[in-house]
Amino acid sequence: MADMILVQPYTGTWDEMSIRHPEGLLAVAAVPVSKGYDVRLIDQRVTSTFEADLDEAVGPETKLIGLTAITGQQIKYALKVTQQVKARYPDIPVCWGGVHATLVPEQTASHPLVDFVVVGDGDLVFCELYEHLRDGSSLEDLRGIVYKEKDGAVHSNVGKVELKTVTDDGSYMVLRKNGSADVIRDLDSLPELPYQLLEMDSYNVFFTEDGRKSATMNTSRGCPFRCKFCSDPVLNEGKWRGFSAERVLEKVDYLYHEHGIRMIYFQDDYFPGSKRRFIEVLEGLKKYKRDIGWCTLGIRADTLTKLSDEQWDLLYASGCHSLEIGIESGNERVIKLVNKAETLDEMRQSNLKLAEYDIKVKYTMIVGFPGETEDEIMDTVKFAMELERDNPNCYSLVFPFMPIVGTPFYFDALDMGFKNPETLEEWESMDFDMWTKKYRGWASPELTRKLEAINFTSYFHNKNVGYKFGGSVLLRTCFRLYHPIAKWRFKTQNFNFFIEDHLKDGLLYIKYLARSLVNRKMMGFDYFQKSLNASEV
Ligand code: B12
Ligand code: SF4
Predict the structure, then answer these.
(1) Which of 37, 100, 216, 375 is the most buried (most CB within 10 A)?
(2) Is the CB of 342 within 6 Å of ligand 2?
């Protein structure tokens, strides 16, 4: 029987595409496991017997059940798990952690079913909370938590997120007024992740043509940049910290030998946060002679332009399979507005250099920033086409802007009439591609529809995206049929008379019905509704 239990809820649509290792919960479990506590990690995405797993793990010594959630549809599933837990074990406290709870701690803790919230890094605090509950100690001195008192009042040991003035050059600081638990600076002081808590073979992170086994890895936290739409500076107080190259390479070696992993997805916010460490990791990976491939979503175009020719060759020799690069906009004014701190020319330059290597590139862009004009939005579509013309190995995905709590653009959005969701249930709809259906944005309904059309067609306009649909016959077929229309829309920037998303909903509804008839398992229509709009395509 477990001392504490951690539950990874469904994420929703994204689970249709890939199931990534639950890095956040593994990190939370690492310290208590290293101290000898019995910790269970139940991943709802990979078990078909969730309630039985829960019953099997809970015992008289179970003092705490923790869940994670990012803003959006995952909240719905986390709430459902919370309800299930409370219905079966009303006396066991439930603690929420992760990105959403960190951004909106008091509101999350005020939900009738939530007892505790951990703000920020949970590696140390969750275990401390468990020990406090086990020993019946006072919680008043425990930094990093927000909790409900016996009378139901919410008590916060962390401050409120506040934005310190944005200067002319776009720089700003995010403050927590009373200070939460400090971000952990020395990541090497943390124990190894307890992979033994997972069924490692149940995960499917990354689709490769040759079916290589893949795993996620987070080798650092935070990012030193200050893009005004991004949650990273809020979550990490703008501080980058990384595991040493030795620790990273030891883990790669472990995954390679013990689990047969041949593809690693470094999902850091900014993988090359220390250039020295970055080069050391590449040198270490080189010894696998490309028998192990890697991808990262945390790299910038201007980082690449600063590499020497030898370092470019090293990048390839180290097994670099693909890179995901945030471009954000194809308009110079907007790039400055979002404080991206790089130029379109740097992006062009690194794109041309990438074209010389067999490295796939996914560019991500955002449209609909506060105050962005329609012409500026179309510049982004044109820039996507330009990058794709210059580099046959790349493709671009374009997402509609969504305000994230604590960022400068979030405060702008509030000034422009955006109404903050007031309950956890309301936050469920705060997903980048559905929030404007429920909450008022600043764009007109016509422009909002155009943003939806650009987002949808971006998944289909370039053949290179197709390989990401590789796992599903239905998605592959849809891709082939719709690709010519999407390509035409991108080429001509014609996003009028957009009805394709309704066709998609119909198709997914048929798929949902067929699947529920076969499985007799009704998970809710919305689980499938957005399948083709998954961000991680
Ligand atoms: C993997 C990942 C996903 C996965 C799912 C992750 C999950 N939680 O289930 C998938 C692919 C599904 C996904 C989807 C999306 N994601 Co995402 N994703 C990530 C990513 C790359 C890594 C997360 C991770 O493992 N980090 C490493 C671990 C160690 O950190 P952590 O999870 O934060 O956990 C620590 C603390 O938060 C805390 N903690 C976490 N859980 C718990 C639980 C308890 C009980 C406790 C006590 C503590 C605790 O302790 C951990 C250790 O310190 C992050 C970026 C990043 N580098 O972190 C973005 C990130 C979380 N995603 C983000 C976004 C914007 C999205 C999307 C909206 C993207 C899009 N355009 O569609 C969608 C939304 C999905 C949804 N609404 O449900 C934002 C968060 C925005 C927000 N407000 O929530 C992030 C931060 C990226 C960014 N910088 O903008 N994502
Ligand atoms: S560079 Fe990327 S991770 Fe860093 S602040 Fe900008 S968008 Fe966020």
Answers:
(1) 100
(2) no
CA distance 490 to 211: 31
Give the Cα separation of 409 and 230 in Å (integer): 9
Q: Specify the pTM.
A: 0.93
Nearest ligand by distance to the CA of 190? 1
Ligand 1 contacts (CB < 6 A) are 11-12, 14, 20, 23-25, 27-28, 66-68, 70-74, 95, 97-100, 102-103, 118, 121-123, 126, 218, 230-232, 267-269, 399, 404, 431-432, 535-536
Q: For the chain, what are the domain ranges?
A: 4-177, 370-537
Which of 14, 18, 7 lies closest to 43 in space, CA to CA?
7
Q: Can you say whether residue 141 is alpha, beta or left, with left for phi > 0 and alpha for psi between -120 and 50 degrees?
A: alpha
CA of 144 to the centre of ligand 2 (A): 24
For residue 535, pLDDT beyond 50:
no
- As a whole-number percent, the residues of the chain with pLDDT over 90 amount to 74
- How many Cβ atoms are within 10 Å of 99's Cβ, its own excluded? 20
Q: Distance from the CA of 403 to the center of ligand 2, in angstroms?
A: 15
As beta bridge partners, residue 323 has 296, 361
Report the distance separating Cα 161 and Cα 102, nearest Å.
Answer: 9
Which pair of tokens denotes residue 271?
A: 């993988």
Ligand nearest to the CA of 183: 1
In the chain, % helix, strand, coil (3-state, to 5) comes to 45, 15, 40
Q: How far apart are CA 121 and CA 235, in angstroms?
A: 9
Half-sphere exposure of 247 (CA within 13 A, CB side): 16
pLDDT digits (tens, 9 = 90+) for 32-59: 999 999 999 999 999 999 999 999 999 9
The SS3 of residue 426 is helix
| Atom number in ligand 2 closest to CA 232 | 8
In whole numbers, what is the pLDDT of the chain averaged over residues?
90
Ligand whose nearest atom lies closest to the CA of 118: 1
CA distances from 10 to 41, 70, 212 (A): 14, 11, 24
Structure tokens given for 347: 């992006």
Ligand 2 atom at minimum distance from 224 CA: 4
Cβ pair 214, 269 in contact under 8 A: no
> Quick one: tokens of 83?
């309800």
Q: CB-based contacts of 248: which residues, under 8 Å, 6+ apart?
A: 217, 219, 277, 281, 284
CATH topology (fold) of 4-177 = Rossmann fold (3.40.50)
Q: Whose CA is closest to 365, among 354, 381, 350? A: 381
* pLDDT for 209: 73
Expressed in angstroms and rounded, the spacing between residue 233 Cα and the centre of ligand 1 is 14
Q: How far apart are alpha carbons 194 and 213 in whole angstroms?
A: 19
pLDDT for residue 537: 34
506 alpha carbon to ligand 2 midpoint, in Å? 36
Compute the distance from residue 226 Cα to the ligand 2 centre, in Å. 6
What is the best residue among 99, 129, 192, 295 to mutate for testing ligand 1's pocket, by most ligand atoms within 8 Å of CB?
99
